[in-house]
Design a protein that fits this description.
Strand order of the largest sheet: 5-4-13-14-15-12-16
Helix content: 25-40%
Number of domains: 2
Distance between the termini: 40 Å
Order of helices and strands: EHEEHHEEEHEEEEEHEHEEEHHHHEEHH
Bound molecules: flavin-adenine dinucleotide
């Protein structure tokens, strides 16, 4: 069997590992010209669901790379008001030396690419497919094409595979924008940062729609390109941020970061000090999007995983973990002679529960109402 995966994101890479481990002929087609190419976001929380999926699909030497390049586990999740008064706090035991509780997205993807040199093709943008009785013909924007017995759309929230397979499927913009940034953890920043910010994910809110989250990325083994940092994410509507999408998505990174600086003018001095210590060139904006219902479809040769089929807001910290769950379940289906429908039957209810949780969390966290 020949499997073509479109998209070398978290789910596509995990699936490729699971299939290669089982001896399946697999290829991954990624539109980016290289693994480094774009702003990919910074810190990702890995839950026990994600860890279990990684253990199922990864060969041991790849799993070791994932563990070595993950962050040191934290022991706290906390919420604050803008003056750093604690609103909630949850402590938990520090996980063991082999635990993966959060990762830097770039370092994680690089680790997931270990051993896939002959499987991965960069600079290959999928355009469309044609299903035949025996498989699927994939066409790329560079004019080339290839045949596979199974096509897996793992091409993220803007999936072209989904757009062709399920043209009616809506992806909802929930009206919240994020500005992502990075505060390098210099000695000085470590000294001035509120101690909880170095222990785990912390979210501060002014109660009027502006939120600022911090998540420490303290590596076991940093990538060659950069060291430890605090991920910082400002959230709010265009109105709250005082900038339209046209402005947000075209302005230089340093101007984006000035929006963050302006938004915390009256906040606690420690927060303002951290914002001032950020690398302004590392800022980038994103739109939060979600599906409401995970749809079903019918095909013997074509399937979808991760954000391509069930995009969700980051408010449950579960999009990547659910993509990993999908990858493990689909790898099992493709290597044990099950049909694609059996994957779909398990994936849809599992993903639907997480999407619904993420919608509820987003309403609470961002002070919005999502029409469902
Ligand atoms: C800011 C932010 C923070 C998040 N934090 C968390 C978190 O803490 N925990 C968590 O579990 N989840 C988190 N998520 C969600 C998580 O990042 C996604 O759910 C996850 O990356 C989905 O994985 P995926 O493999 O489905 O898609 P992606 O990782 O998005 O990968 C899709 C890949 O497909 C490629 N591609 C797209 N179109 C084409 C094409 N036409 N041809 C070829 N290649 C193509 C893209 O370049 C990309 O590499 C967060 C998301 C965001 C945006």
């Amino acid at each position: 069997m020949k499997v073509a995966i479109v998209g070398a994101g978290i789910g596509g890479l995990a699936l490729a590992q699971g299939l290669q481990k089982a001896g399946v002929d697999v290829k991954v087609f990624e539109r980016d010209p290289s693994p480094r190419h774009r702003n990919q976001g910074y810190r990702i929380h890995i839950s026990p669901v994600g860890e279990e999926a990684l253990a199922a699909v990864l060969p041991d030497f790849v799993r070791r790379r994932v563990i070595a390049t993950a962050t040191q586990p934290g022991d706290l999740v906390a919420g604050f008001d803008s003056q750093l008064q604690v609103q909630f706090e949850q402590e938990f035991p520090v996980a063991g030396p082999d635990a993966v509780t959060s990762v830097d997205r770039y370092a994680f993807r690089r680790a997931l690419m270990t051993g896939l040199d002959d499987v991965l093709e960069f600079g290959k943008q999928f355009d469309s497919y044609a299903e035949t009785s025996g498989g699927v013909q994939l066409a790329f924007t560079d004019g080339t094409s290839t045949f596979a017995d199974v096509l897996v759309g793992a091409d993220g929230v803007g999936s072209r595979v989904r757009a062709q397979l399920l043209p009616e499927q809506d992806v909802l913009d929930i009206g919240v924008r994020c500005i992502y940034g990075k505060v390098p953890l210099t000695t000085n920043v470590r000294e001035v940062a509120p101690p909880p910010f170095l222990r785990g994910f912390c979210f501060a809110s002014n109660g009027a729609g502006t939120g600022l989250a911090f998540g420490p990325v303290i590596f076991r083994e940093p990538p060659a390109e950069y060291g430890d940092y605090l991920m910082a994410v400002l959230t709010g509507t265009n109105e709250v941020l005082g900038a339209s999408d046209d402005e947000l998505f075209t302005m230089p990174a340093a101007d984006l970061w000035s929006i963050v600086t302006r938004s915390v003018t009256n906040w606690h001095p420690s927060i303002r000090t951290l914002v001032a210590a950020a690398d302004p060139t590392a800022a980038f904006p994103i739109t939060l999007r979600t599906c409401i219902e995970v749809p079903s479809w019918s095909s013997n040769h074509l399937t979808l995983l991760g954000d391509a089929i069930h995009p969700m807001t980051p408010a449950a910290g579960a999009g990547a973990n659910t993509a990993l769950w999908d990858a493990a379940r689909l790898a099992r289906a493709l290597t044990s002679g099950e049909d694609l429908a059996s994957y779909q039957q398990d994936m849809i209810p599992n993903a639907q529960a997480v999407v619904t949780e993420s919608l509820h969390n987003a309403e609470r966290l961002f002070h919005i109402s999502i029409p469902v």
